[in-house]
Amino acid sequence: MKLSQMLFVTLRDDPADAEIPSHKLLLRAGYIRRIGSGVYAYLPLMWRVLQKISQIVREEMNATGAQECLLPQLQPAELWKESGRWDTYTKAEGIMFSLTDRREQNLALGPTHEEVITTVARDMIRSYRQLPVHLYQIQTKFRDEIRPRFGLMRGREFIMKDGYSFHADEESLKETYQDMYQAYSNMLRRCGLTFRAVEADSGAIGGSGSTEFMVLAEAGEDEVLYTEDGKYAANVEKAVSLPPDAETSPFSSYEKRETPGTETIDKLCKFLKCSPTNVVKNVLYQTVYDNGTTVLVIVSIRGDQEVNDVKLQNELTRLAPNYGANSIIALDVPSSEAQSKWTAKPLPLGYIAPDISDDYIKSGSNEKIVGKFLHFVDKTTIDLKNFVTGANEANNHVVGANWGDQFQLPEIIVDVRTAKIGDRAIHDPTETLQSARGIEAGHIFQLGTKYSQAMGATYTSEQGKDKPLFMGCYGVGVSRLAQAAVEQSYDDNGIIWPVEIAPYQVIVTIPNIKNAQQVEVGEKLYAQLNQAGIDTLLDDRNERGGVKFKDADLIGIPYRIVTGRAIENGKVELVERKTRKTHEIPINEVVSKLGEQIKSVNREQGTVNSRQ
User: Fold this and answer.
1) What is the mean pLDDT of the segment spanning 490-503?
2) Mean pLDDT over all residues of the chain?
3) Are the beta carbons of 414 and 172 closer than 8 angstroms?
4) Does residue 368 have a pLDDT over 90?
5) Which of 128, 346, 497, 568 could make an S-S bridge to 556, C-beta 3.0–4.6 Å?
6) For residue 191, which phi and psi values (nearest 5 degrees)?
7) What span, in angstroms and rounded, lies between the C-alpha atoms of 175 and 246?
8) Sign of dihedral through CA atoms 254, 255, 256, 261?
9) pLDDT band at 599, cuts 50/70/90?
10) Are 185 and 490 spatial neighbours (Cβ–Cβ below 8 Å)?
């Protein structure tokens, strides 16, 4: 492509609404243009990047035997109600666009396609002989983000590869899950990215286990905790670890003490001259299930630890059937206004004890509010001796308390603490957790029978019995991955694309188009390189050489050939964007040298054909 013929406009200044480097650079370099909140146009350069990423994804998926298809973006609400996720996505998370058509039917724009693909499987898969089956698509998805941010990182419209597999049993599912683990690793490696595969929370998708593939970058929204030995890595929402050992309590006997103005752990510990590890703090949460039922929860956790809201929500979701519900639509620490709807008397906030009485809940205030507290105790507290905790009375605590003596240990023991950097690893206590920032580029799930049971998707086994299909789900954010690549690799001058996914691998720059010899050599090399299968862009614009060099750096093409003064000696200048190395090479060796350079990169990253 000749740059003079391309829709190509660059900006010298950072756009005011762009927050992170990759967003700024993609806008400045003319890759994307904002159309509305969280909605962007992919311009020619970006579309080439997306096509290259999509092709890598396609090759790796096809190599595993997965079959490409295309599913509808418009989905009937009935399917989502069958799976029990309609309220979760439209009310709780509120991320799904829903609408009503002229026939008064409720529809949604798909943020994901588990319901649709399960319907297809229910209608078409009859026998174990048809299994396993793995289908995938690459298409636009929609997510009604409350605060779209960071360009393509958290947009309302995005391109994604999502795949779904169906199996006769869990063993077959795990085999495909491992195939996808390898395929996803291959995809990111072939895209030239540094990444880490980590244990993750399954979130609204559900299932028994999942792995996220994180592109490592400082601007990553997710925190990854890992060990240096490479044997453990997890998203902070999922991570587990050994907390620091508790200090010996300075209290040897039980008593109630007046502790004015100690509603926080720091104030309390200073007042009592004890360690936060000696304290059992009791945190109040309010949970609303999808059937409208409100449950009030007390979580007892060690004073130096914080509750992980994702882990807590997972524990409460498991209890949803106990309240005739399927999922949670809200979980938070109740505000004063929220408390006023159900409290019978003022709560001793900051001084709550593990045994707070249910009579704080107003009797018959609302049939949807469960009339007693649900008590959880975190594992960090169960071995504490002579601990400090609230006395259910403002400005008072008790010291020297013990489970089984002054307080009954709650029946539901959970791990809802937030793992932190520096914690000891469970698999090897000599290893400590390190932290890195990551951008989620892919996520694979073992869904099991969650959707097949809810939607009646069964197959006939070899013994002639109807059984629910086992299911897996595998997603890659294609447009997000493109921006993640920029976030991982840029400098003060602009983008530095990996060779494998750059819109063009080479840019031939003619510094002075009024110089006939420069033009002749430039156009000749442009034609030869393209003929050799090397994607090449020709900057033949009527601009100053300095402008062209700045634009070449900004748009991040991996190699630049400059037909400058060196052509008088039969040479051109070769500039490597990543290293800034510059050297002159003979004109007649340009095609062979660049071809070998690009092949070397491909060999290093690996190609799908070489691994099959």
Assistant:
1) 96
2) 93
3) no
4) no
5) 497
6) -80, 0
7) 42
8) negative
9) confident
10) no
The DSSP letter of residue 565 is G
pLDDT digits over 161-171, tens only?
999 999 999 99
User: Structure pTM?
Assistant: 0.86
> CA 194 to CA 207: how far, in whole Å?
27
Residue type, 52: K
pLDDT tens digits, 116-167? 999 999 999 999 999 999 999 999 999 998 888 899 999 999 999 999 999 9
Tokens of 609: 């054909």
DSSP 100-164: E-TT--EEEE-S--HHHHHHHHHHH--BGGG--EEEEEEEEEE---SS-BTTTTB-SEEEEEEEE
In angstroms, the CA 591 to CA 526 distance is: 10
Contact predicate 415/240, CB 8 Å: yes
Which residue, chain included where needed, has tokens 């914690």?
A: 423
- Over residues 419-441, the pLDDT tens digits come to 999 999 999 999 999 999 999 99
Contacts of residue 304, Cβ cutoff 8 Å, sequence gap at least 6: 243, 244, 265, 275, 276, 277, 279
**Mean pLDDT, rounded, for 167-178:** 96
Helix, strand, coil percentages (3-state) for the chain, rounded to 5, are: 30, 30, 40
Q: Which residues fall within 8 angstroms of residue 586, CB to CB, at 6 or more apart? A: 570, 571
Residue type (1 letter), 264: T
Q: What is the DSSP letter of 333?
A: P
Q: Are 29 and 151 in contact (CB under 8 A)?
A: no
Residue 202 has pLDDT above 70, yes or no: no
Strand blocks (E) in 143-237: 157-167, 195-199, 209-216, 222-226, 233-235
